Amino acid sequence: MVIRPGLRRGLSAAKAAKRPALNAVAVSDLPFPEWEDTDLHDNSENFALFRQAAELIDGKGIFDFFVYRRVGSGPIADEELLTNVTAYYRDGKLSWVEGTDDGTLWTDK
Asked: Which UniProt keywords apply (predicted)?
């Protein structure tokens, strides 16, 4: 299994000129927790980048993860997308996690 954080970009003219970000809050013009005005730019190659570069904006964060299953073996194995998981941070803490087609998987309430 491989988990890759998604790099998001803003769709508005002002935000599109900015660099893609791991935190969708950084490239969205919408109020938290909305982020429909962003789009996937690319998947990060490894999880180490997320640990080094992910930062909260005013204690908020929306982080998009893609979960793949490795198919085949060897150095050039294919990857099959299994699901997408999104983690929401509020007040500097993990607040809830959603899965594509699975709804809320975990909440702090």
From this structure: Plasmid
